[in-house]
Amino acid sequence: MPTFPKRSRPWWSVFDLPVKEATVAELERESAEPDFWSDHQQAQRKMQQMGRLRDTLSLWREFESRCRDLIELTDLAIEENELSIQEELETGAAELGLELAREEIKLTLSGPYDERSAIVTIHSGAGGTDSQDWAEMLLRMYAGWAESGKRPMEVMDLSYGDEAGLRSGTLEVGGSHAFGYLSAEQGVHRLVRLSPYDPNNLRHTSFANVEIIPAVESESDVDIRAEDVKMDTFRSSGPGGQNVQKVASAVRLTHLPTGIVVSCQTERSQHQNREYAMRILRARLLKRQDDERAEELARIRGERSNPEWGHQIRSYVLHPYKSVKDHRTNLQSTNPEGVLEGGIDPFIEAYLMQKLGS
Hints:
- By secondary structure, this protein is of the alpha+beta class.
- Helix content is 43%, strand content 20%.
- The longest helix has 41 residues, at 40-80.
- The model is unreliable at 1-14 and 304-309 (pLDDT under 50).
């Protein structure tokens, strides 16, 4: 695990339990009102918020109870001069400290979209077939992360490479604070390995860009006029560029005012592909609106734009040695196989804690 940075405030302040308890009480009062369900979408969001807050309060009460048990056991050991339970106390304290650190990360994800599902898109970069294979490896990595965390996941689009791998792939990952966690993965990922596609088995460097955007929860978040969207259909393709459908079930949507293009070809149904494409389009338009607001605010403040986009955030080396290194936090792992199976939590946690401590 990474060494977490020191902070100027006590760790328990992030829980804000009195505020959360007051919010739950207020939501309970609102939910008892006769017209609470008159706006169904808003009522659902408030019920989900109340459920999350109740889970947080319940979890904290459990931590509080465990802390009290450890303190009482320590006092008893001191009183009875009983040193045989020292190892048990140290293990219990270490486990509790680790769980509290992870909960601190979750509770400090307070961005406007951090609680939402995440739409994860991987684009292959420079490196030909090797980079397309690398894009598919990354897609499997995020699918593995979702599966290990028992998070719901949908494959929304797969655009296959000519020989192997993916030109691009899109997943939607749900669960608690999915966007807040996965936003740590935004950026360029670099792979170094002996190429399975090089007849001389030479070492190759491949790149892929990972884009993370929040899912749109309500159509009211983004207004899209029907006349502003152009839809084209085409036959979906499989590995190696082969056509896998005799009918044009794949869908390409173009948002005419912005020029944003989204395509989906995963499902056999044209209707389902259009639904997925619209969900991705709404999410991209929401991100565009937020980016424009951030740029305008930076212009007013006279801030310089961040020049870091395009530089790799993480390197995965499979040859001549084995290592995964995050260039933002300097956290390293010597188990790239485990990382590529979805074991990215330490990297996410280190990045989020670095942001918290900055």
